[in-house]
Amino acid sequence: MTANQTVNLGANRFALGLTFNSSGTTTLQGGGANRNLSIGSGGITINSGAGAVSTNATNTERVNFLLTANQTWTNVSSNTFTRGDGTVNLNANTLTVTGSGSATSGRITIQANISGTGSIVKDGTNDLRLSGANTFSGGLTLNSGTIGVFSSATALGAGTFTINGGTLQQANSTAVAYTTNIQVGGAFSLTGTSDAGTLAGTMNLGGTSRSITVSSNWTVSGAISNGSLVKAGGGRLTLSGTNSYTGNTTVSAGSMVLSSTSETSFVIAGNGVNNQINGTAVISLDGSIVFDLSGADATIGNSWLIVDVTSLSETFGSTFSVTGFTDNLDNTWSQTIDAGKKYVFNEGTGILSVATIPEPSTWALLAAGLTFTMVLRRRRGMA
Questions:
Q1: Residue 366 host element (H or E)
Q2: Which of 211, 310, 315, 342 is the most exposed place for a label (fewest CB within 10 A)?
Q3: pLDDT of 364 higher than 60
Q4: Which domain holds residue 266?
Q5: What are the percentages of helix, strand and coil residues in the chain, rounded to 5?
Q6: Residue 369 pLDDT level (bands cut at 50, 70, 90)
């Protein structure tokens, strides 16, 4: 069939699965009223060559979906499947969304509010777009392809968002703070408009190094924990949360901003043993850094490279601080260890070191010498 068609349910219906082959457009609508369509394990398949498929968004003709089993929605056509306004109730089932298209073909868009205790898994190379006020609690997993989000702070659901790969895209020009907590299981990308979204939930890196390729401007305001972070891509990544991860922070391309509200942690151990900020790109340090000195070897002369200023293009902003240290107003920060030594962090070198505190007698001699010099100069001026 090649003609465009509208399918009126006329009543609440059950289907084991739905398959679309027509090259014309297909619209599902209630038929005089809003209807419920229960879908079984066959799921939804839109085959190659099929036209666009959508559900009617008119308030009096909506089709609400109720999933009665685990299922897969597959779009291998070059057109879009748009699940319009209304509701999708996962119940306790897992919905897998997949396809062989790209961000511009084979897309599956779910504008409806998604509920239930079930979960969604994104596989395949195509694009899944979510924009509803979603409350489903079983979690969302991105394995491959793209998930595009917009409009709703809860578009990613109420469970954990697990990212094992693929791309998260801010799909419209209005920046949104997404509140879902994130578990990172692999390298992934962030893309979107010039000033894209904010990830406001917590982010667990999974105990290893994770690479995030950023091609626009994203902010992570939630606390990042448990691993190392590599910033790749030409975009800007801003960290503004209280971060507890103690692996390296590597800025390999583009730029990173540690905002005035951010906190970055460093664990200091034996001489030269610590995590650090390194890379070859641009970083602005406007927040606070925190040194865990509980296991530090505080031998005079020991030092630790904290910020690799020789390879980074770094800027220490006016709001930069070192927690628990005194600002010496000369781009250094210090904390007394005991009567004879202190920790010193130097912005110019990016190094934390253990330095000697001069003996009081030395200070007295220096002061006396300064006084003598001043008196001598005055006397010479009077002669």
A1: helix 360-382
A2: 310
A3: no
A4: 5-333
A5: 5, 50, 45
A6: very low
d(CA 62, CA 123): 28
The full length of the chain comes to 383
Q: Are 240 and 221 in contact (CB under 8 A)?
A: yes
Which helix H or strand E contains 362, and what residues bound it?
helix 360-382
Mean pLDDT, residues 376-383 taken together: 30
**270 is a domain residue:** yes
Residue 303 in domain: yes
Q: Does 357 map to a domain?
A: no
Sorted by sequence, the CB contacts under 8 Å of residue 218 that are 6+ apart come out as 170, 190, 192, 196, 197, 198, 199, 235, 236, 237, 238
Number of independent structural domains in the chain: 1
Centre a 10 Å sphere on the Cβ of residue 338 and count the other Cβ atoms it contains. 8
Rounded-to-integer distance, Cα 66 and Cα 159, Å: 19
Confidence at 360, pLDDT banded by 50, 70, 90: low
Examine the pLDDT at 131 and tell me if it is beyond 50: yes
Burial of 340 (0-12, 13-18, 19+ CB in 10 A): exposed
- Cα distance between residue 296 and residue 45, in whole Å: 60
Residue 143 CA, distance from chain mean position? 16
Give residue 242's pLDDT. 98
**Of 353, 297, 294, 345, the residue nearest 323 (C-alpha):** 345
- What DSSP line would sit under 232-271, residue for residue? ESSSEEEE-SB----S-EEE-SSEEEE-TT-EEEEEB-ST
370 lies in a domain? no
What does pLDDT average to over the chain? 92
Would you state the pLDDT for residue 305? 98
Residue 285 bridge partners (DSSP):
258, 316
Which of helix, strand or coil describes residue 351?
strand
Q: Mean pLDDT lowest for which of 219-233, 334-348, 349-363?
A: 349-363
Give 378: exposed, middle or buried? Use CB within 10 Å, 0-12, 13-18, 19+.
exposed
Q: Which residues is 122 bridged to in the sheet? A: 97, 142
Quote the DSSP letter at residue 359.
P
Give the strands of the sheet with 321-322, arranged side by side: 263-267, 288-292, 321-322
